[in-house]
Amino acid sequence: YGLYDYLRNSIQQLELAQRKAALIVPAFETLHYRLTFPRSKAEVLSMLDMGSLYTFRYHVWPKGHAPTDYAKWRTATVPYRVAWQPDFEPYVVVRRDCPKYDQRFVGFGWNKVSHIMELDAQEYELLVLPNAFMIHMPHAPSFDISKFRLSAGYRGCLQTLREEFHQDLSRRYGAAALKYLTAERSL
Description:
The chain is an alpha/beta fold. It has one domain. 41% of the residues lie in helices and 12% in strands. It is built from seven helices and seven strands. A four-stranded mixed sheet has the order 4-6-1-5, covered by helices on one side. A three-stranded mixed sheet has the order 3-2-7, with no helix packed on it.
């Protein structure tokens, strides 16, 4: 509730028209098909403490959202900056002139990861909003994630696309892009 207005106000207050920044909307999830949607951060915190909400994908893919620093978000009252980390894939709000999603990554896998990597390569600030949140509701697995899980060929193709993406980053950003390749190899 109120997320749209909060985002608009944050964009104005943070003067996003004049800076390269990605506003991170912290993501949570529930395992319940029915949920009384929280109206405030205080309600989200209460639901987290009661176990009816969890940080997004913490039990499946914690790397994807851990850099959001949910412990800091709990008490934050102003936006705070976080650093890029491998496999970071937050939900973001960015200006229209930001880098587009890489069209190689359709279906399941690496669309948000590659986008955040490109934003970081272009030196975007990654700012977590202290009073924003979204909640992922449970649903049946998508056709594409099923293909990813069941097909070695699909996973192999995705790996090839990731390697091509890293090569393209190296060509565009030079030595600054080495941190992405180094991070990938250390995983």
